[in-house]
Amino acid sequence: MSYGRPGGLPLVDAMTPAEIVLAGPVTREEVTGLCDDVRGLLEASGASVVVCDVGGLGPPGLAAVDLLARLELAAKRAGGRIRLRDPDPALHALLDLVGLRFEMEGQPEQREPALGVEEAVEPGDPAV
Hints:
This protein is an alpha/beta fold.
């Protein structure tokens, strides 16, 4: 028995990315289920990014860092990645402190300068 692939591109809604909302302190037992949810969203939607709304996650701590690291690992194993929405500034600082870099919604990409920012040039600097 053979299986023929349907013709054409898969239907993906580019305007509404796959999303998961993380609310309240997450227990260790819930982490596995959330990792499965991220993998399932990536596989079902065909998207390469799952947006994780972390606004309701609660006070930042190492448990939140562990959760986000595990979600990112699960997403990478499924061929994607996660993007954080509405992170607390303290969570953002904690992630930087432990060396984890996540894409955040509403931030310019690394290669794009922020709007309205100009580089200062000191007299005597060599031309690049």
